[in-house]
Amino acid sequence: MTGSSFSPIAWDGDAITLIDQRRLPAEEVYFTCATWEDAALAIREMVVRGAPAIGITAAYGVVLAARAGVDLEAAIAGLAATRPTAVNLFWALDRMRACRAAGGDLDAEARAIQAEDRAMCEAMGAHGAPLLPPGTRILTHCNAGALATGGHGTALGVIRTAHAQGRIAGVYADETRPYLQGARLTAWELQRDGVPVTVLPDVAAGHLMQQGRIDAVIVGTDRVAANGDVANKIGTYTVAVLAHAHGIPFYVAGPTSTIDLETPTGAGIPIEQRTPLEVTHVGDRRLVPVGVPVENPAFDVTPARLVTALITEHGVIRPPFAEGLAAHVAAADDGRRSPAGS
Ligand code: MRU
């Protein structure tokens, strides 16, 4: 089996049901969004997270807003104001707006966004797996898995497909301070799907590389600028620098919905700042002295020169990236049918 064994986002035509990612792995409980405000809250509070999953949830949020007869532009603005870095959110909202303008079926469009995302992840898996020779020990950062997408995952989609082809000897998951997406979510979903995974503290990655225990790195992304600079979870840049220093390939997997050709370089990507509480506390326990200021940027930018290759649903792009990125976006635009139901 190459697919993930669970569905992170379910839509029954009236409500969105999300696995509550705040509570994994201790509890597998579900969060229901019956209004667009619920969907916005779920994104803001990280019930659902990961760039494609945020976009899908927002698209269903627009359907809920339309059903409720509220001002759709106000709802779209509310959904857009939840998290700033992942461009998939704005891409999905633009697509829903265009669907409405064309008189299309919003419900069908949102379902299409989800189904297409899953298909894009499967395609990324097929394109990316051959980059990993049999026996690869691979490191990943954050969670770019089924939980973060319409299913299968981007970076973890490549790993899942490669594992099914017998290419993966083991996965190292950075714990991903401070929110612990690697320790909590990547470990949960890979264990559940039978992919061998070991969690390490973020600070141990360089040590394992120095010992020759990591053959490749693969991560997802929240936004790829036109020149190939890549925004992803805080700490990704550190991993990329380490991989470069050790001559280890550094791969980035993301669907074309993550490519932002309107942002020329990574310097233009907005970086979300999150609450200091994620750093000052672990659970209920305070670690940092009261009164000491804290920095908590949720993302960083890895310059294109540190990226070995980008993987999209249309194939593998090698540097220099600008031309390939534009071509993959054009191919996606050509392949996309007109808004559902129009
Ligand atoms: O803050 P998060 O958990 O939403 O950050 C998620 C990431 O950084 C992922 O790597 C990225 O969204 C790609 S998910 C396929």
Q: Could you explain how this protein is built, in words?
A:
It is a single chain. The protein is an alpha/beta fold. The chain folds into two domains: 112 residues, Up-down Bundle (Four Helix Bundle (Hemerythrin (Met), subunit A)), CATH 1.20.120; 220 residues, Rossmann fold, CATH 3.40.50.10470. Helices cover 38% and strands 17% of the residues. It is built from eleven helices and 16 strands. Strands 6-5-4-7-10-15-16 form a seven-stranded mixed β-sheet, with helices on both faces. A four-stranded mixed β-sheet has the order 11-8-9-14, with helices on one face. The chain has a three-stranded antiparallel β-sheet with strand order 1-2-3. Helix 2 runs antiparallel to helix 3, helix 2 packs parallel to helix 4 and helix 3 packs antiparallel against helix 4. It binds 5-S-methyl-1-O-phosphono-5-thio-D-ribulose. 5-S-methyl-1-O-phosphono-5-thio-D-ribulose binds next to helix 2 and strand 9.
What is the percent of helical residues?
25-40%
Number of strands: 16
Q: Please report the number of helical segments.
A: 11
pLDDT averaged over residues:
96
Which superfamily, in CATH terms, is the homologous superfamily of the largest domain?
A: Translation initiation factor eif-2b, domain 2
Strand content: 15-25%
| Gyration radius, in Å | 19 Å
Give the low-confidence spans.
none
